[in-house]
Amino acid sequence: MNSKAVAAIATTLLGCGLNNVFLEYIIKQDPGCGHLITFAQFLFIAIHGFIMTSKFGTVKPKIPFQTYLNLVVFFFLTSVINNWAFNFNIPVPLHMIFRAGSLIANMIMGILILKKRYTLEKYVSVAMITIGIIICTLMSSGNKKAEACVDCDIQMEKKQAADHFFWWIIGILLLTGALLLSARMGIYQESIYKHHGKHPQEALYYTHLYSLPGFLMYSPSIWEHMQIASQSEPYEIPFTNVIVPMLWLWIILNVVTQYLCISSVYVLTTECTSLTVTLVITLRKFLSLIFSIVYFQNPFTIYHWFGTALVFLGTLLFAEVFTIIKQSDVDQKLSKSVKKTS
């Protein structure tokens, strides 16, 4: 494995892991700031791309504007809905587990749109992921009902629990819709790459740039949470005399690490095999989940652990990780036996 691949793996684990940490700090202080987070991330990547990718507008795009426009609709809606879900009582660990169900959505879209057929192993792996997500979701619904009734009066208990649970269900529906949109976007991306070739940095830039006008419809929410961020507790940055609102510091760090995460994954896909990419991304999700549970003390029962294990094992099974590792061992043994006989 070359040094570029090793660096990509390290920055993927570090960047994506830190991004989840800063995201959870933000959500703990202001659960409704999903639109602000998404807008800040898109704006940063668009500015960076304008400077580094389009060279201040001097480099013409290789993929037509209309093609990007269709992709932007999918990309914008998926990103906004995923972050918006935090406003509906969705905890970060459940959000991470639920998004691991992208394989389910990809399979559904592949069957419906591309008329694909899969092996029994694929169906078994998706069944494992589905069951795991259902277990985690049901267990989290129980937590939400309990949380809703802490310090409740007896007369208000049922009403508050019902309201809390209703908005949680809305959050689950949003995450489900985002999964299906993301899968449909993946199919559309495949068709773009077949016709125009792969241009990952260009695609990263233009999908974020063309999405920016869409945030105008969320401007009241963005402005409201910008004010909340500005009024958060002040924090003095170590070794400097600079004082910034704590929430703004978390948002800035989240934006920077989000770019580091995305760009590292793009490099990873070009430098490593699909097996390595799947392993790294799965490991990253697992480490982020463990950190979220331990450090932020999110509620996680034995049933959550069982559901999580099903999700990650199903993901590895779908990617044929175990089959490839087994085949690799067989090839090594054959190679050694050939050397001995020769």
Architecture overview:
- This protein is mainly α and 342 residues long.
- The chain has 13 helices and two strands; from the N terminus they run αααααααααββαααα.
- The chain has helices spanning 3-29, 34-52, 65-84, 92-99, 102-112, 120-148, 154-196, 200-209, 219-230, 246-271, 274-295, 302-318, 321-341; strands at 234-236, 243-245.
- It has a two-stranded antiparallel ribbon with strand order 1-2.
- Helix 6 (120-148) packs antiparallel against helix 7.
- The two termini are 28 Å apart.
- The relative contact order is 0.18.
- The model has no long low-confidence stretch (mean pLDDT 83).
Tell me the strand percentage band: under 5%
Low-confidence stretches: none
Choose one word for the global shape. globular
Summarize the biggest pleated sheet: 2 strands, antiparallel
Biggest sheet: strands side by side, in what order? 1-2
Mean pLDDT: 83
Number of helices, counting only DSSP H or I runs of 4 residues or more: 13
N- to C-terminal distance: 28 Å
Based on secondary structure, the structural category is mainly alpha
Q: Rg from C-alpha positions?
A: 22 Å
Order of helices and strands: HHHHHHHHHEEHHHH
Which percent bin holds the helix content? over 70%
Strand runs, count: 2
